[in-house]
Amino acid sequence: MFSKVPGPVRLADQVASTLSEEIESGRLAEGDRLPTEVELVKQLGVSRTVVREALSRLRNAGLIEPRQGIGVFVLPRRTRPLDLEAEAADTKAKVLQIVEVRRAMEGEAAYLAATRATPRDIARMRQALDAIDSAVAAGGDGVDEDLAFHRSIAESTGNTVMVSTVRYLGDVLRSGIRITRANEARRNDFIEAVREEHHAILDAIEAGDARAAHAAARRHMKHAAARLRDADDSFWTETEDLEVDLDAAP
């Protein structure tokens, strides 16, 4: 059914894109069961870990749903795909636009989280931050862990529309985060600044200080934008090798 996926880098992105195309084209229709993990591994020529990560991304995007003991099925499309063919064609402009959207969304999410998060929610956010540190220490980029942290904040609001929106924008947000983290990884002071900003958001949420949480989340995005604006031209040339798709939509 599927052809083997070429290329050694970001295979999960390529697999997710391949499966998404099957769904968008209608070749995998609403209610269809996806091949099993074992079958996908054989058909795509990738590892089981890659397949699982790709399926996780499709699930977060609201394209598929695992059903215990039965399989993974294609969900109905309840909204039209986003048209992200931005007038500003260059990567820098698009990433800064994503940051602007995140500033609005995440400020409100942090505000609500500070008023509604349970101790279990706080623990999950803390684990997500620890996971970022562990990923970076192991030589990873921490992108998925970073996204998981921000998603955990949205989930703690109890606002199902907000959670669905974050999941719907999953690939777009991941692409933006990948570039911001690549920029920040170039300098130790940036790495530490991001870490402090994340902890400031969580500390305010844990303290139940909604205004401080809102301010901390917006400040984090403001500083992220400033760090991107200060990046030199060579960095933006290098982003061509990051294999991001800023026009992707779940």
Structure description:
- By secondary structure, the protein is mostly helical.
- It has helices at 11-25, 37-44, 48-60, 91-116, 119-137, 143-156, 160-168, 170-184, 188-206, 210-229, 233-238; strands spanning 64-67, 71-74.
- It has a two-stranded antiparallel sheet.
- Strand 1 (64-67) and strand 2 form a beta hairpin.
- Helix 4 (91-116) packs across helix 8, helix 4 (91-116) packs parallel to helix 9 (188-206) and helix 5 (119-137) packs antiparallel against helix 9 (188-206).
- Residues 79-89 and 243-250 have low confidence and may be disordered.
Q: Uncertain segments of ≥5 residues (pLDDT<50)?
A: 79-89, 243-250
Amino- and carboxy-terminal Cα gap: 22 Å
Shape by Cα distribution: globular
Mean pLDDT: 84
- The spatial strand order of the largest sheet comes to 1-2
Give the topology string: H per helix, E per strand: HHHEEHHHHHHHH
Q: What level of helicity do the residues show?
A: 55-70%
Radius of gyration over all CA atoms, rounded: 18 Å
Number of strands: 2
Share of β-strand residues: under 5%
Biggest sheet record: 2 strands, antiparallel
Structure annotation, total helices: 11
Structural class computed from helices and strand pairing: mainly alpha
